[in-house]
Each structure stands twice: as structure tokens, then as C-alpha cells.
């Protein structure tokens, strides 16, 4: 129940330990094709170039920037947490000129702020923003931002590491040009691959590059030939077992269906938050924009948060996340992602936390928390 | 029996499907420490910074260059196959000034050639060379090259993707400053991680960089803090399951012992090559420098090599590799790496190939091949 890796279904563990075949074996190439079809469904896109990058979510982030930003390109990055910061850092490394707008951590951007920033810097070619900020638990609305970018001939890059398959994300409808994710969040697959999709405008930008992509390993002009459905050209040896796992995890997502899956995440988050509030924890993210998949709460005064997380882990076998960056020591981040989003997990955490918060002579505080969660489940 | 991925031991399949823990879980941090100790033994090094990069072997290559080469640095790359070419390509992408020396594919470099190249370009700061060229099956002697580099204050980067744990490789004794590998060759682990070790001279070069490392994902100035044994600082989410697998695969290597493991590879290669020669296949790599782990042979005239490889795969369930680059269509590459290096595999390939090469009315050619292999095993 941390900010990922989330729990993994037994079928995915079974898939990851299937016997290897070669990375050019016809069986594996067929699995790649199927996986691409499944990824397109989950991203809600028809983009041909929808693939799994051979690295974790951060490799997906780097792949998006290193391929789409050329030295000197102006890039607007919207920062309201750790992962917006990371995008800014990468823009500098790949030689882009960074424009950056900031919101306090835990708040979302108003599309007008982005519009104004683009008016101030009309040469901006790319806008980058995080959909689900894993460091703060905030969910950024994206719908209008895509339109604003189209009007100004900007590409829109969206970080969907924590949102994909957990909350609504519509790459084509929302006019997103490049979108990446990780496997270990709401896809409930072990970490190690980064789903990535590039739309036609991004592909065009890529094909018109004046310079070589700075990274050989992440160079999509070559990688796309390995993922092309007709003639697959060797680039690097794909992580076969991880691809087996992702293929199966995507199958589970689609068997459940995207809408029921989103609804499941919402339900268990409401129950969890009701219980946590009964225990004295206040939500940390802006009201109306709280992520169901990553529930951030302020740690009340007087609690040794690191020690209590350690006791949860050692005595109750439950992992939750501490704060990152400027929120370190101040918030907890409770993941309800994919397989982890269950009534069982909500009850277990509330019960355990209720016990830990109860001093010796009181009756456990868990009762009130469980009652609050139950009220959500029966409603 | 292709050029990797090689076969995987059941214990490694079991390890890769173990339940996930978090990437900062005390259990996982302990596994990282153990894995580093095991990697040091296999690399024959005491280098503190001995880790697994979260990507395949090519990510290891890129990590070595992007961290150690700064824009404008002069780099000498020795090219006698596909992977030397790839190193040259990467040097350009990271802004290095490339000096390159070439040998015909399948031949090795004489240390004097490197010495002469360094005399022509005395500002060279790095020499890069492939130990075991997967595209040609040639094994490059390294011993003198390290000394030549030290005398000229050059760093030596060695590609050990196909050699590590299959043939002798002594990072410290041979004065190698940076060395990387992949998991899916002689370590017999699924692909997805790149073992990497950096010696003190490389660390010093890294700490004195004037510019940020161009890749955030592969930036060792940050990654080394996650792998530091005292205080592990989050950088990116490690591929947990792959690390479980590598930890177990390294355990198997050390249980067998490095010397017996090298000897096993040599034995089965001798038997295989004797059998293949009996079938009319001539070795493609320079005599005296043939890799036991990757046996490259010329395909005799009159054989439709692609069709025959396809029949081996479809009818006999055996994968072998075709040629890469300028050797495409001309050679076969037969891997005997890690778990794949067995008498059983040698017999199976020779029997199957003997059948395929026999026309209807003859008795099978396999007999001669098996006799030749047997002569090696009984000697």
C-alpha cells in the first residue's frame, strides 16, 4: 500500500516465470503485437507507436523528452511536485530551454495559467505536465490543456505513471501527443517497463529532428523499427520476462474493464479516506482533485511518522509511503493501486493503524475508522 | 542456443516470481547488498560501485559512456564488430570526439595498434573495447591494454556483455576502469539488467565532471547514492523481480565456481565445434581467439541459412543466431552460455542439424558429428 510497486496478481507472477524465448522468436513477436493492442486500449489511443520502453517509469519520462526535445527547443514544464521537478531537470540535460511554472505542492494548475505562460513565451514547442503527482496525491485535469497546446502548435507530454489503468486517461480524446507510464502502479505488474505512446504530431516532430537523439538506448527512431508490425528489426534485447508479465497484467485490466476498474479505485479510496479522517488524518491534496489511487494525508502532530511506518511494516506487514522532497516527514502516501485497491486492504490498514494509535488503557480507535469505512461500502 | 537470451535455471524462474516488496524495503536493501558482493566476485573486483543498471546490456554500455565522456572528450573506440560500432555511435551522441581503429570482423586487435593510435592522438582520455564480440565470436585479449591505458592516463572501458561468467575476466588485475555486462548471456538470467562496475579512476573522473550527465535515468552521480551501503536514497524504482532473478543467478554461478564454469564452457564448445566441422562448418573467428560461449561458423554454400534456422526452430525447438551487420546471411552464431552449455544441448543440435543436412537416400550425417563430439568428451 505504498506509492508502488503495488500488489501483483498470481497470473502475472506465473507469466513472469514462463520459459524464455528469444527476442526475435515468432512467439515473442506475436506477444509484442498483442501487447501493443492491449496498451492502446488502456491508453485509449489508436497511436501506432504504443510500446513498452525497456526501463522503469523514469526511463519512459526520459524517452519522451530525449526524443521530442532538440537542443535549444523551448519547453514549458508545470511543476507541483517531485515528478514535475524531475521533468525540468531532464529538459536541461537534453539541451532544452526551460520555462517553468510552479504551483504549491498538492494544488493543480488552472489551464489559464498554462495559456498565459505560452503567451509570455510564444516560441514554446512543448508543454509537459504530470497527470497524477505521486509525491502529493493530486490529480491534474487535462482536458483543456490539450486544446490550448494544439492552438499554439505545441506538443503536450503527459506523465501518467500513477494514473494509467487507475483513473480515467484518454490520450486521443484529450489531445495528448506523448504519454508514458510505469508498470508497478495501477497496472499491478512488477517494475521494469515503461508503457509509452506517441501520436502523429509527436512522430512528425521526431522524424524532422535535425540532430541525432542523444540516447542510443532510448532512440525511438530505431526502437520503432523493432516494434513495427511488419518487419521487426533488432535494436536491443527486450526484457522478455517483464514483457510476459506486462502482457498478462494488461489482460487482467481489460478483463475487468476500464470503467469498473476506475470505479473500484474510487470506492476503496472513499472508504479509506473516511476511515483515516476518523483517525485524525486530514487529506493533503487539493479538494476535488484528490487521487483515489494515491491517498496523501497530513501526519498529525505528535506522531513519529518514520517509526510508525516502520512498525506497520515490521509488526503488520503493511508498507505505506512517507513524504518525498519538501513533504518528507509531513505526509503519508497510501497507495490503492490495481490489485492493492481492495476492501481487505482498507480494513487491514485501518485496523492496524487504529491499534498503533491507541494508548494502552483506551479501547482501540480502529472501531470508529472501520465504521466510517463501512458507511461508504454500504451506501 | 542463440546469442542470448540463454537458458535459465529453475531456481532463477522461482526467484523472479517471488512476491514483490518495495524498492526501499529493508529486505530488498539487504538483497541489493548481497547482490553487490556477488557481482564483485564475478567481476573479480573490489570496486565499491558495482551495481545492476535498470536496463539491458545496451543500457549498461550507454551508462558507461554517458557518465565518463564529457562533451569534447577524445575517445578511442576499437571496432571489429557490431558492438564496437554501437560504442562509436554512442560516443558521438554524448558529444565525445571519436577516434576509431578498425579490424576486419572476426579478428582481434594487437595491443600495439592501440598504443600507436594513442600516440597519434595523445589527448585521448578513454579507450573502449569489446571483450567478447557477440557479432563475430571473437575474444579480445585485454591484459596489456590496461597497462597501456594507465601509462597514458586513459580510462579503459570494456564491454563484457557476452564474457562475464563465461570466460575469464579479471577487472582489477587487468586494470579495467569501467566494465558492463548483460544478464541474459553467461549469467543465465532473463534480460533486463546490466551489471556495471566502476573503479576508483573512473569514479574520480565522474566526480570531477564539469557538466551534468546527459541522462537522468543513467546518472551514476545519483544512482550511486541508491546503491551506497549506508544510506540508500531513492532515485528510481528498481526492477524488483529482475533483481531477485539476478541475485539467484549469481548465486548459482558462485556455487559452481568461476574456474569450473569457464572450463565447462570450453569443453562443450570444443565438442560442438568438432561436430560442426564434421558437418562442413568452418569456424569464422580468428584461430586462437575463438569464444567458447559464442561459436561463429561460416554457413557452407548451397544452404538456405534463414530457412534452415527456421526449421531448427519450428521442427526441433532449437534457436541459433544468424549473422548481424556485414555478416548477415553468412555466419551462424551458436551460443553455449551458462545453463545452455551442456552436453545435452551439443548432442541435440548436432543430431538435428545432421538430419536437416541429409538428403533422403543417405544415412544421416549426424553420426560423424556425434562421433567427433564424443571424441572430445572422452579425451
Based on CA inertia axes, which overall geometry of chain A fits?
Answer: globular
Order of helices and strands of chain A: HHEHEHEHEEEHEEEHHHHEEHEEHH
Integer average pLDDT of chain A: 96
- Helix segment count of chain A? 13
* Main sheet specs of chain A: 7 strands, mixed
CATH architecture of the largest domain in chain A: 3-Layer(aba) Sandwich
What do we call the CATH homologous superfamily of the largest domain in chain A?
Type I PLP-dependent aspartate aminotransferase-like (Major domain)
Q: How many separate structural domains of chain A? A: 2
CATH class descriptor name of the largest domain in chain A: Alpha Beta
Assembly category: homodimer
| DSSP helix fraction of chain A | 40-55%
> What name does the CATH topology of the largest domain in chain A carry?
Aspartate Aminotransferase, domain 2
The whole-angstrom Rg of chain A is: 21 Å
Q: In whole angstroms, how far apart are the ends of chain A?
A: 24 Å
What does this protein structure show overall?
Two copies of one chain form a homodimer. In chain A, the strands form three sheets. In chain A, strands 1-9-8-7-4-2-3 form a seven-stranded mixed beta sheet, sandwiched between helices. In chain A, 42% of the residues lie in helices and 14% in strands. Chain A has two domains: 10-255, Aspartate Aminotransferase, domain 2, CATH 3.40.640.10; 258-378, Aspartate Aminotransferase, domain 1. By secondary structure, chain A is α/β, with parallel strands linked by helices. The model of chain A has no long low-confidence stretch (mean pLDDT 96). In chain A, helix 1 packs antiparallel against helix 9 (240-256) and helix 10 (258-278) runs parallel beside helix 12 (343-357). The first copy, chain A, contains 13 helices and 13 strands.
